[in-house]
């Protein structure tokens, strides 16, 4: 099979097993289980905690001891098995611990899949900047397909009658509720992905670290020396600050749309019935923006691309704050989902490539793990916990109804402040040639 096609399959299922539950977990926690903002915020912190602890460690193991494709397969199989237990619990505390274990297995596979793809492409003489984005775009497609499957077969508001019928049969077979099907979808395909990864080209550890190296170097902690470089340190700090916003729409977007059911005139609106599919417009837009990244990176450079991403977050949250299920409000909801592609991809992909071009091969996997730790780790933890607490304290009334307009406006103001500070503080000279040499 063509190597690009094989990596495309890897990318597709890498994000399929995440998309099956990530954007609908809020609806599961708030709508089905009736958890509070604080309880749900803590549950969603599992992504951040795992991203702090695991990616640097797994990156170090891949750099030093175990083939990347084998390690990747083991992690996904363990992730899939853990999700079987997750589907069987509804206590938020127990749910937290099981999901935390699952995230310990899954979160490092995001950066590991990047490193694995980069290595395979380079070994086959491909230009990474040109070859990787079209492969990565299929990860977004996988995420979208998973969201649609969940909306149809794991949602009581499914837009298709046969979806609820078949979904209930699946739930009867598993002995669980309809909304828990999403966890079984993720589990089944994660195990299949883990098995598939063992068939990929070998990506052995480079073993470039000498045996007499310091313990910190052997553990991969030498990637933290990048903080000695002012530009890299500033990049990682802003990655953390923006990372606090990255997961907010994953946490709350579907719930936000579903909550329009509490308004009588919107209770049967398309926004409520097709909430997950509408949110998936965000991922559809990703497929277009990913393909533009090589052009924007080479023409404008990392700083301007990052600024575009940050300002796109301001627009994303701002449009949500004034959206509604009809008229111009619906147009703003759609536009908010479209601009998400620029907000998310320009930050994550360009950031990953920035790390790739500014680190050497001895710490590259660890550095990618460090980038993931700052965004989906420290950033996600602070964003998850604080957003949940703020929503409970300031934007939820005694009946549990949330002021989504105020919530999204608060997020928009935060993103605008980050954008202005980054524009003033981050100094980076654009060098198109350096970016173009990533694949050599």
Summary tags:
single chain; 440 residues; mainly alpha; 17 helices; 76% helix
Short summary:
The chain has 440 residues and is mainly alpha-helical. Helices cover 76% and strands 0% of the residues.
Indicate the multimeric state.
Answer: single chain
How would a textbook summarize the main sheet? none
H and E order: HHHHHHHHHHHHHHHHH
Count of separate DSSP helical elements = 17
Low-confidence residue ranges: none
Structural class: mainly alpha
Mean pLDDT: 82
Total beta strands: 0
Task: Assign a percent range to the helix content.
Answer: over 70%
Radius of gyration: 21 Å
Instruction: Tell me the β content.
Output: under 5%
Distance N to C terminus? 24 Å
What global shape is seen? globular
Structure description:
The chain is an all-alpha fold. 76% of the residues lie in helices and 0% in strands. The chain is built from 17 helices and no strands.
Outline the fold blueprint.
Blueprint: H1 3-19, H2 25-32, H3 37-64, H4 68-86, H5 92-123, H6 128-153, H7 161-174, H8 181-197, H9 215-218, H10 230-246, H11 248-258, H12 270-273, H13 275-321, H14 327-357, H15 364-394, H16 404-425, H17 432-436
């Amino acid at each position: 099979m063509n190597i690009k096609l094989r990596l495309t399959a890897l990318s597709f299922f890498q994000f399929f097993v995440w998309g099956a539950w990530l954007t609908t977990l809020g609806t599961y926690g708030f709508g089905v289980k009736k958890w509070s903002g604080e309880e749900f915020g803590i549950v969603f912190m599992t992504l951040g905690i795992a991203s702090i602890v695991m990616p640097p460690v797994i990156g170090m193991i891949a750099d030093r001891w175990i083939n990347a494709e084998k390690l990747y397969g083991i992690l996904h199989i363990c992730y899939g098995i853990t999700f079987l237990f997750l589907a069987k619990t509804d206590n938020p505390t127990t749910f937290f611990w099981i999901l935390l274990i699952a995230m310990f297995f899954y979160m490092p596979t995001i950066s590991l899949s990047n490193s694995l793809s980069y290595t395979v492409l380079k070994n086959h003489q491909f230009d990474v900047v040109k070859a990787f984005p079209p492969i990565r775009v299929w990860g977004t497609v996988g995420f979208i397909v998973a969201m649609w499957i969940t909306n149809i077969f794991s949602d009581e508001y499914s837009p298709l009658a046969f979806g609820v019928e078949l979904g209930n049969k699946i739930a009867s077979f598993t002995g669980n509720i309809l909304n828990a099907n999403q966890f079984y979808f993720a589990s089944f395909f994660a195990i299949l992905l883990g098995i598939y990864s063992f068939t990929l080209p070998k990506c052995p550890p480079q073993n470039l670290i000498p045996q007499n190296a310091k313990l910190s170097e052997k553990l991969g902690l030498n990637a933290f020396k990048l903080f000695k470089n002012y530009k890299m340190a500033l990049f990682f700090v802003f990655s953390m600050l923006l990372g606090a916003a990255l997961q907010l729409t994953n946490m709350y977007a579907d719930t936000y749309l579903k909550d329009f059911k509490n308004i009588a005139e919107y209770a049967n609106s398309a926004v409520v019935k097709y909430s997950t599919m509408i949110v998936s417009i965000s991922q559809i837009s990703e497929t277009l923006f990913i393909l533009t990244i090589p052009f924007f990176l080479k023409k404008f450079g990392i700083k301007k691309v990052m600024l575009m991403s940050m300002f796109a977050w301001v627009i994303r949250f701002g449009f949500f704050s004034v959206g509604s299920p009809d008229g111009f409000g619906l147009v703003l909801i759609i536009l908010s989902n479209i601009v998400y592609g620029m907000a998310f991809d320009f930050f994550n992909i360009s950031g990953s490539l920035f790390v790739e071009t500014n680190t050497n091969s001895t710490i590259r996997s660890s550095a990618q793990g460090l980038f993931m730790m700052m965004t989906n780790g420290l950033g996600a933890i602070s964003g998850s916990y604080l957003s949940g607490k703020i929503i409970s304290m300031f934007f939820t009334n005694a009946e549990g109804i949330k002021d989504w307009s105020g919530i999204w406006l608060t997020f928009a103001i935060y993103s605008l402040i980050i954008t202005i500070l980054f524009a003033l503080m981050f100094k980076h000279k654009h060098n198109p040639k350096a970016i173009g040499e990533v694949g050599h």
